[in-house]
Automatic annotation (TrEMBL):
<feature type="binding site">
    <location>
        <position position="56"/>
    </location>
    <ligand>
        <name>Mg(2+)</name>
    </ligand>
</feature>
<dbReference type="GO" id="GO:0043001">
    <property type="term" value="P:Golgi to plasma membrane protein transport"/>
</dbReference>
<dbReference type="InterPro" id="IPR006689">
    <property type="entry name" value="Small_GTPase_ARF/SAR"/>
</dbReference>
<keyword id="KW-0007">Acetylation</keyword>
<protein>
    <recommendedName>
        <fullName>ADP-ribosylation factor-related protein 1</fullName>
    </recommendedName>
</protein>
<dbReference type="InterPro" id="IPR027417">
    <property type="entry name" value="P-loop_NTPase"/>
</dbReference>
<keyword id="KW-0342">GTP-binding</keyword>
<feature type="binding site">
    <location>
        <begin position="134"/>
        <end position="137"/>
    </location>
    <ligand>
        <name>GTP</name>
    </ligand>
</feature>
<keyword id="KW-0479">Metal-binding</keyword>
<dbReference type="GO" id="GO:0016020">
    <property type="term" value="C:membrane"/>
</dbReference>
<dbReference type="GO" id="GO:0046872">
    <property type="term" value="F:metal ion binding"/>
</dbReference>
<dbReference type="Pfam" id="PF00025">
    <property type="entry name" value="Arf"/>
</dbReference>
<keyword id="KW-0460">Magnesium</keyword>
<dbReference type="InterPro" id="IPR005225">
    <property type="entry name" value="Small_GTP-bd"/>
</dbReference>
<keyword id="KW-0547">Nucleotide-binding</keyword>
<dbReference type="GO" id="GO:0005525">
    <property type="term" value="F:GTP binding"/>
</dbReference>
<dbReference type="GO" id="GO:0003924">
    <property type="term" value="F:GTPase activity"/>
</dbReference>
Amino acid sequence: MYHLLSGFYKYLFQLDEYYVLILGLDNAGKSTYLEAAKTHFTKNYKALNPNKITSTVGLNIGVIDTDGCSLNFWDLGGQEELQSLWDKYYAESHAVIYVVDAFDRDRIEESKAVFDKMIASELLKGIPLLVLANKQDLQDSMGVREVKPIFNQNAHLIGQRDCMVMPVSALNGDGVDEGIKWLVQCVKRNNVVRPPRNQSDN
Ligand SMILES: Nc1nc2c(ncn2[C@@H]2O[C@H](COP(=O)(O)OP(=O)(O)OP(=O)(O)O)[C@@H](O)[C@H]2O)c(=O)[nH]1
Ligand SMILES: [Mg+2]
């Protein structure tokens, strides 16, 4: 009887697990964004001081439980020599958040080239993509209207998947909630193509 009840309890309360990659050039604001997301979605979470966040060499992880699912984030280092590690995570990912430094016009083409290479991967085919035009708190940052056409140039690589470009400031948290909420709807919708993991699978 105990086993039956505990099995039923697990069935009712287990959360579907989704894995979300956070990618983009170094200095784009990926780790700052992950901190902001954890702060917004985790009660009593004590955020790191943004000045204490250093360039990522390995991997930062974070988990958010929201809307009946558990989002597991993998925030990878964006430096050129670390980009070759990204594709090791593609097959396991349910979504990608690609962070763009919208203030850095000098590197926007570099960011777009790296984005194109990433989305060309077969392992990410059909996977929802959230492109964040970050650093909107800075005057003269490019807005979505400017960033979107640049990242849309190779629309055939984006294909049929859900793809959205949104403005955000990882530093002050503006736009973080909207992005995560959109992503949750997308990964749920994409359940058939890439099913979630179940906590009981682990
Ligand atoms: N003004 C402003 N600065 C930001 C924002 N997001 C990040 N930054 C700053 O940008 C710098 C880089 O941020 P990180 O979060 O470390 O960037 P990253 O993409 O994780 O970089 P790597 O780990 O090297 O790949 C830091 O000085 C942040 O404080 C933002 O929304 N606005
Ligand atoms: Mg980082």
